[in-house]
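Tip: read the tokens left to right.
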């Protein structure tokens, strides 16, 4: 029946003419705009990540390398040149020593290779004189005079001025702390008498007191004030604070201090003493992140290593024709020796290379996880587009169009958006400073994004694909099992291949590493989809016995729709696994570096070389704050069996002051083992006793081992096995970390090693315990940057742990994984919304029925939320479990000990705070998604109350 529309009344005003109908093509174009915009954004993002990933990896490597070089050169220059020079040649005119040394500095600077020009710079020129003696109100003082080109400038002086380069008198300047300790005053005259430097007599005038540690070097900018001052003080800590001798010291001195002098004072005292002094030139390699990125990969590191190896030879050739011996060179009018050089930078590069290989693996895994989440989001977008257009496509099929033709039409429709996204992504990748993006990776990703929608369209329209959804396809269960088995085999093969060959060292993504996160995520999702519906069904049955329909309907639908939630579940699992893995690695590395630093120190402080420097070791034990001290010694031995003559194998024989260690560190495993075996405090092993009782690895109780020392046979009696925890005892770290790693270890009390002399000891250490050590006094006795290796090495746990906490490589890993996780979460939110929109009609139909039966709007939203909770919990469990097991699955590909050092690989433990934050974030993500999906559903009228005769 047709309804007649009455004509308008005569007095009714003229109405606006009806709008012209919008053409169908325009309406379809408007409907496609969200899809095209989404594809463009995803293409741009994924193209940027793929094309810029090599650049980003190089940039991250540059930051890590620059940080590592800066840390290595914090206490001393990276390259140090030195040359001895005699007094002025007889008959030659005396010159300005500063200018003469500066000419050598110019020669050294001109030899810098072009690739390092501007990065390898002169840091300082120093001449350190042997000690002279003087008297102050504080007592006898051993005074070391120093000329330093980077000495504090006038702005750093609290009182007085720097020594005058043109003054005839011997002028000195000391720090304010030295002034207070030695009770000096401005203008005071100090007698200079022979000490280690003989034949000198004179009077020094105190002309200034500078503030140590916040100094302004002459000619330095304000930004360099603290840096250069700190370097000088770290290398020569007695410039900042004098060291006090004990009253019973054999030297007869009460103090030892350092003072700054002008170059003319150096030549005056050298002429008096007729002594040979040594000048040192420090060169510092300061690489910014961009420059360091050029040397960060394998080829760049090899090039930098060759440059650093060749540069000292070139500088030596330019200085004196390449001579290596004799005093046939000249520094001004001074006869000088050939130039010697030393550097620690090649060792830094050698240590950095394997560590960055592992860091590259971690960052690449994060980038791969991000790419996988992005592609899954693209799949969700394509599926939604196919669902929206399936009626029109089926109509086209009914009119005779083939599935291939329809798919090609869809490809043509989306090509402009994908092309625009490709251009935007490549432009973004190329906009990075000094970037050379890998365009082929961006093109491959864009091609994959473009082909997804046509492929899914063809799959949905192919012959035999139009059967109703509620009719199960034949052998569907069998195909699912085959698909799951295939994914499982591929994942196992990928993990096995990754464990066997590791990652590629080439620039750019590793295809195998990119595939492993997706495969492992698919395996996890397959297991979850099989398992989590079972408890959900049980919970639904329990809910059916209670009042209310929201829980029972939501849980029943969640269990039934579990396979349909596989895509959203995969997105969440991969996102969570990547985030948990990144937090796990970053936290483990940070804790592992701190643990390794504490193990290498062994106590609150340790002094290596104590056996060769007994007097200095004794002075260290008397520093304020030192509560206990323990000696540790290690010898390299090659025992043989005393019964059958078989070799036991090269081993480390370690002696510890067992009783003292037990008192200083009650939780020490070594002290506990010695005490249990009755070896603590044992006096055997003296000069008349040739049998030493030991605890041993890989030996039986009662075995007799024989070693030879100084043409004497000594017997080692094994009285017990060595517990595994002893191998990780920090008390043994100072001697074991600096020598060759050996599988076999023998442990005894130090008192049993009386038959050995100091020259027999491979490594020795003095462990210092105390909660409040006087760090400044310790450093005044043993500088952190000791140029003389015979002095020994003092390590403080607080300093080593601080260095570990400021490691730039760990900061780079955190930054990279934080960025990858943030982008992955945003993509996961988009993918989850799209996946919910895919199932929105079914949920809307269910909500319509329930609202017709009286269910309210809030209850409907609660229904949607409860329906998603099982999937969210499954994703949380699966993603967390996968992230925690990834280090084990990757195996040799990820060797965390390369980062940390220490006696063993660091214990992997989860970041509980991060895991909890991810769980909360996932809940917020799902709640936000439900809110967005509910808002979209209301706008589209989904879930409205059904009217009589209406069907959805």
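Filled-in amino acids:
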């Amino acid at each position: 029946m047709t309804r007649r529309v009455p004509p308008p009344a005569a007095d009714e005003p003229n109405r606006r003419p009806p709008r012209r109908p919008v053409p169908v093509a325009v309406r379809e174009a408007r409907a496609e705009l969200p899809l095209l915009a989404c594809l463009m954004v995803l293409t741009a993002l994924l193209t940027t990540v793929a094309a810029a990933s090599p650049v980003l990896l190089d940039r991250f490597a540059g930051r890590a390398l620059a940080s590592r070089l800066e840390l290595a050169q914090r206490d001393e220059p990276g390259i140090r040149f030195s040359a001895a020079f005699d007094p002025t040649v007889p008959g030659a005119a005396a010159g300005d020593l500063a200018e003469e040394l500066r000419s050598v500095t110019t020669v050294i600077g001109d030899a810098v290779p072009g690739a390092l020009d501007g990065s390898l710079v002169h840091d300082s020129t120093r001449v350190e004189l042997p000690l002279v003696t003087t008297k102050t109100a504080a007592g006898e003082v051993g005074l070391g005079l120093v000329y330093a080109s980077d000495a504090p400038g006038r702005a750093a002086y609290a009182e007085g001025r720097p020594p005058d380069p043109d003054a005839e008198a011997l002028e000195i300047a000391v720090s304010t702390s030295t002034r207070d300790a030695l009770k000096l005053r401005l203008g005071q005259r100090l007698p200079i008498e022979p000490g280690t430097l003989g034949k000198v007599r004179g009077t020094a005038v105190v002309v200034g007191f500078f503030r140590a540690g916040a100094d302004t070097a002459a000619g330095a900018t304000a930004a360099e004030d603290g840096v250069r001052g700190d370097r000088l003080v770290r290398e020569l800590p007695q410039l900042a604070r004098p060291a006090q001798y004990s009253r019973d010291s054999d030297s007869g001195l009460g103090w030892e201090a350092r003072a700054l002098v002008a170059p003319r004072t150096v030549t005056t005292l050298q002429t008096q003493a007729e002594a040979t002094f040594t000048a040192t030139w420090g060169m510092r390699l300061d690489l910014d992140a961009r420059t360091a990125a050029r040397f960060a990969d394998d080829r760049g590191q090899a090039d930098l290593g060759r440059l650093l190896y060749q540069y000292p030879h070139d500088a030596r050739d330019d200085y004196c024709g390449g001579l290596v011996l004799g005093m046939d060179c000249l520094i001004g009018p001074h006869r000088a020796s050939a130039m010697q050089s030393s550097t620690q930078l090649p060792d830094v590069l050698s240590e950095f290379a394997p560590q960055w290989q592992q860091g590259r693996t971690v960052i690449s895994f994060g980038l791969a996880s991000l790419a996988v989440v992005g592609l899954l989001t693209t799949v969700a977008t394509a599926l939604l587009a196919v669902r929206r257009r399936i009626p029109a496509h089926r109509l086209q099929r009914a009119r005779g169009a083939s599935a291939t033709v329809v798919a090609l039409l869809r490809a043509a429709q989306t090509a402009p958006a994908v092309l625009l996204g490709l251009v935007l992504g490549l432009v973004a990748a190329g906009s990075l400073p000094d970037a050379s993006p890998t365009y082929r990776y961006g093109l491959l990703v864009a091609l994959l994004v473009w082909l997804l929608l046509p492929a899914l369209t063809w799959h949905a329209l192919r012959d035999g694909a139009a059967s109703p959804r509620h009719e199960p396809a034949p052998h569907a269960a069998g195909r699912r099992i085959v698909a799951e088995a295939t994914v499982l085999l591929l994942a196992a093969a990928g993990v096995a291949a990754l464990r066997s060959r590791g990652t590629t060292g080439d620039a750019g993504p590793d295809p195998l590493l990119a595939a492993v996160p997706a495969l492992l995520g698919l395996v996890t999702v397959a297991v979850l989809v099989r398992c989590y519906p079972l408890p959900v069904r049980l919970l639904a049955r329990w809910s059916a016995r209670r009042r209310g329909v929201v829980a029972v309907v939501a849980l029943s639908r969640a269990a039934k729709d579990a396979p349909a939630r596989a895509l959203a579940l995969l997105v969440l699992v991969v996102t969570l696994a990547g985030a948990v893995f990144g937090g796990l690695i970053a936290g483990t590395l940070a804790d592992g570096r701190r643990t390794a630093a504490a193990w290498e120190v062994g106590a609150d402080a340790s002094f290596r070389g104590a056996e060769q420097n007994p007097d200095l070791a004794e002075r260290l034990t008397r520093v304020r704050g030192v509560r206990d001290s323990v000696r540790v010694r290690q010898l390299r031995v090659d025992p043989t069996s005393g019964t059958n003559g078989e070799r036991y194998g090269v081993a480390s024989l370690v002696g510890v002051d067992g009783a003292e260690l037990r008192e200083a560190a009650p939780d020490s495993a070594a002290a506990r083992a010695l005490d249990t075996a009755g070896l603590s405090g044992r006096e055997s092993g003296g000069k008349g006793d040739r049998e030493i009782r030991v605890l041993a690895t890989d030996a039986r109780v009662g075995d007799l081992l024989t070693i030879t020392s100084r043409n004497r046979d000594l017997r080692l009696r094994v009285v017990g096995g060595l517990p595994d925890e002893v191998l990780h005892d920090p008390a043994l770290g100072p001697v074991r970390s600096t020598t060759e790693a050996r599988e076999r270890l023998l442990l005894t009390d130090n008192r049993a090693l009386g038959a050995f002399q100091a020259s027999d000891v491979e490594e020795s250490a003095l462990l210092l315990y105390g909660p409040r050590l006087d760090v400044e006094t310790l450093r005044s006795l043993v500088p952190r940057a000791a140029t003389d290796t015979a002095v020994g090495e003092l390590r403080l746990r607080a300093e080593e742990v601080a260095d570990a906490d400021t490691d730039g490589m760990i900061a780079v890993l955190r930054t990279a994984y934080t960025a990858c996780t943030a982008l992955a979460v945003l993509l996961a939110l988009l993918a989850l919304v799209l996946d919910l929109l895919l199932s929105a009609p079914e949920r809307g139909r269910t909500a319509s029925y329930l609202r017709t039966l009286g269910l309210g709007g809030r209850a409907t939203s609660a229904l949607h939320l409860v329906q998603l909770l099982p999937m969210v919990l499954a994703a949380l469990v699966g993603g967390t479990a996968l992230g925690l097991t990834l280090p084990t699955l990757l195996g040799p590909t990820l060797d965390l000990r390369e980062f940390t050092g220490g006696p063993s690989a660091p214990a992997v433990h989860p970041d509980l705070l991060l895991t909890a934050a991810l769980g909360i974030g996932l809940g917020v993500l799902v709640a936000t998604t439900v809110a967005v999906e509910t808002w979209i559903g209301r706008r589209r009228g989904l879930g409205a109350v059904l009217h009589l005769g209406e069907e959805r």
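The two ends are 25 Å apart (CA to CA). Residues 702 and 796 are 40 Å apart (CA to CA).
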